[in-house]
Amino acid sequence: MSLPDHLLELLAPARTADIGIEAVNHGADAVYIGGPSFGARSSADNSIDDIARLVRHAHRWHSRIFVTLNTILHDEELEPARRLTWQLYDAGVDALIIQDMGLLELDLPPIQLHASTQTDIRTPEKARFLQDAGLSQLVLARELTLEQIRAVRAATHCTLEYFVHGALCVAYSGQCYISQAHTGRSANRGECSQACRLPYKVVDAQGRFVAHDKHVLSMKDNNQSANLAALVDAGIRSFKIEGRYKDLGYVKNITGHYRVLLDALMEERAAGGQPLARSSSGRTRLGFVPDPNQNFNREFTDYFVNGRREDIGAFDSPKNPGQPIGFVARVGADAVELRLDDPTQSLHNGDGLCYYDLQKELAGLAVNRAEAIDAKAGRWRVFPKDPVASLKDLRRGVVVNRNRDAHWQRRLEKPSAERRIGVWMQLAADGAGPAAGLSLTLTDEDGCSTTVRHPVALETAQDAAQAARSTREQIGRLGTTIFEAIDVNLDAIQGRFAPASALNALRRDAVTALEAARARALQRLPRAEPVEPPVPFPQEHLSYLANVLNSAARRFYERHGVQLIAPAYEAIQEPGEVSLMITKHCVRFSLSLCPKQAKGVTGVQGTVRAEPLQLVNGREKLTLRFDCKPCEMHVVGRMKPGVAAQAQRERALAGAAGVPVIVYRSRPGAMADQGR
After folding, report:
1. Helix (H) or strand (E) holding 222
2. What average pLDDT does the segment 136-140 reach?
């Protein structure tokens, strides 16, 4: 079962249960979080008890909790992973996000399954296959254009999910092995070493330097704020925020930002006769104005949604450059004087400032103390935490950015949102005569309803209007609950009243009963049934790019007609030179060296060719090869000596402990199959 087509889901990340609770409070319709293990984020694990606590909180608003179980698994990990799925199901988790197809061969609970970004869904054929195999929600590749998303929508009926904000992996998800090759830490097992954020020298085929110490594999951060309506029209129904390593302030701010945008879009579409609704309950009121620029970012891009762009890279620095705030007016012995561009702004103790030095490297200037010289004129004096003399190339006229606003961050450390579900309240007399009691009926915006009766003696009011005002105020006091009154109907008791203590007790019991009714009304998301007989996988041969690491995954693909299955890169002892990363980002294009860019330019056409380039970082060397037909780049390299041997030793130790170890042998040349 997928989301009904008129429902939109805002899907927020959580590093911890407490952050997940705040994501719900700030408007998330669903939250994804790592469990105790196998969650593809090695330092973002959470206990079953914490996840159960998050589930209980989220379900009050009918928000959903998805747990990531999206690493690829060794054979000896299959049974622990299976047991974990049952523990998560018993904790009330709504869905599991998976990468390893071997899980579909196990005895899993009847829990909904979603396809992780690591499943690398770029084509309608791949999407349709995963849907037919029993997955209910698919997160599409970040690289897809609107046209490609529409093509996937036309081929499927399950829920389509799309990343709308956060850090971008330069590789197609699940198709990067640089970390495994260089360090033995597999990105597909949650241990990426982030080689894409390093600086590289770019050298052409003749040995000439094309770029020097540029972060040419580092992308700006994703921001689809301007494209939400177009994504809805293309078929996206789940809008995913990246960030399971992010802090509380990020999750509050970015969740709030997209909540505001989606709510506005739904109101606009409703006015135009195209009703859309959020997939959970209630309205969120924020105690701040969201601003994505306030959180760590490498500047923003909408990546490939609207076609290829030249400005998607954060080549100068993988750090947060912040926002321009002013320039250096004077450098003193122990302080720096700044002139702010906007005099209405101010600086604070603890702010983070930065600037580019003469080598165009981002340098930090942490503020220990800030004091206004002339606030109206935008003149400030800051005393850095580090000695002024140690601040490289800081000089008069240098533009200064702020990449940490201490005042903003402190504000988000406090309660900053409330979320309420609208209810209609109807107070009525229960019976007739002087012994009549009271009944209170609550009906919420989802149609959940309950009636509570108390034996309360009603009295005739001397001032009917005043009694009605007092009763309405008393019965409508829902401030400490998750509800807010849309309307309080007192028609049935006109001219009569009851003591405030009796009304309070009646309201408390009615609220408790309504929460219980809401809990009963929330149905578990159903597990999708796979198509029988098993549909064929779109390819008959799979290379290491399919990430098949265990025997169960191998059985899965064999059941779906795959004839030749190479082992995952993590299982190969001597892989030789292979594509360690496949990416839609093209270094040649970004450096204006693409043959397609040169086409038609006088004096240039024919001189620019898609020849390999080389990336050099210290002793590390990688080759860039360009596949111009699909417009993709391959980062080619070898496994470091010792990495494969170390991995084999670890596998042998596992085998010595009585754990079965299976290594699949591939045929010669199997590595060349670009199976996905």
Report:
1. strand 221-223
2. 98
Q: What is the DSSP string of 428-462?
A: EEESSSTT-EEEEEEEETTS-EEEEEE----EE-S
Do 542 and 562 touch, CB atoms closer than 8 A? yes
Q: Are 664 and 567 in contact (CB under 8 A)?
A: yes
The boundaries of every CATH 3.20.20.70 domain in the chain are: 7-167+222-294
pLDDT in tens, 640-670: 887 766 666 655 655 544 433 333 333 333 3
Dist CA 210 CA 203 (whole Å): 6
- The whole-angstrom separation of Cα 309 and Cα 520 is 49
Give the distance from CA 494 to its chain's centroid: 52
Tokens 């998330």 -> residue: 28
**Residue 576: helix, strand or coil by DSSP?**
coil
| Contact yes or no for 546/564 (Cβ under 8 A) | no
**Dist CA 311 CA 208 (whole Å):** 24
- d(C-alpha 566, C-alpha 102), whole Å: 15
What is the tens place of the pLDDT at every residue in 519-555?
999 999 999 999 999 999 999 999 999 999 999 999 9
361 token code pair: 């490297």
DSSP symbol at 79: H
**By CB neighbour count within 10 A (0-12 exposed, 13-18 middle, 19+ buried), where does 201 fall?**
middle
Q: How far apart are CA 480 and CA 420, in angstroms?
A: 10
Closest CA to 384 of 359, 351, 358: 351
554: which residues sit within 8 A by CB, 6+ positions away?
A: 102, 548, 565, 664
Please tell me whether the overall predicted TM-score, pTM, comes out greater than 0.70 for this model: yes
For tokens 């299955």, name the residue.
565
Query: Residue 39 — very low, low, confident or very high, per pLDDT cuts 50/70/90?
Result: confident
Query: What values do phi and psi take at 559, rounded to 5?
Result: -60, -25
Question: Where are the CATH 2.40.10.170 domain residues in the chain?
Answer: 319-412
Cα separation, 244 vs 322, in Å, equals: 21
422-445 CB burial, b ≥16 within 10 A, e <16: bbebbbbbbeeeeebbbbbbbbbb
CATH architecture under which domain 7-167+222-294 falls: Alpha-Beta Barrel (3.20)
Domain 319-412 of CATH type 2.40.10.170? yes
Residue 57 Cα distances to 31, 60, 284, 544, angstroms = 11, 6, 15, 41
Answer yes or no: are the C-beta atoms of 511 and 495 closer than 8 Å: no
Mean pLDDT of the chain: 91
